[in-house]
Specification:
mainly alpha, Arc Repressor Mutant, subunit A, two-stranded antiparallel sheet, 6 helices, 2 strands
Length: about 140
């Protein structure tokens, strides 16, 4: 399940994408436009900056903007950055210890298939596609 943080991160990225991407957008403007508290938005923006998805500028005329064009972002990379690993079960996490039961696990193929479907789905959607109203 995708948390509020992941959903809000997508909304924030869309908000910035739908504006002039060469201009810095004040945090307050994004918060008001998305109806997200500035305090909560600060935590989300911090993750996006750390992941180099957005760039920040302090001072007059400052704010945040995308580092790339909307068509160069995938929903998957935004969600992974904010949510962490999206694996449906712990044993498929990249940092999981090898499972002693993997060779005999009758459900592992199903979980692998779901993991692939989820990955292909989220990484197959570009930010600019979400900008289209009927996406």
């Amino acid at each position: 399940m995708i948390s509020t943080k992941g959903r809000y991160a997508l909304r924030v990225m869309l908000d910035m994408a739908e504006r002039d991407t060469d201009q810095y957008i004040p945090l307050r403007d994004i918060a008001e436009n998305q109806e997200i508290s500035e305090k909560y938005l600060e935590a989300i923006i911090k993750l996006l900056v750390k992941g180099k998805l957005v760039k920040g500028l302090r001072g007059k005329g400052g704010g945040y903007r995308l580092t790339r064009r909307p068509e160069e972002y995938t929903v998957g990379e935004i969600l992974e950055l904010t949510e962490g690993n999206l694996a449906p079960v712990a044993c498929l996490s990249p940092d999981a210890d090898p499972c002693d039961r993997a060779d005999n696990c009758r459900t592992l193929p199903m979980w692998k298939k779901l993991d692939k479907l989820e990955h292909d789905f989220f990484f197959g959607i570009k930010l600019d596609e979400l900008m289209e109203r009927d996406a």
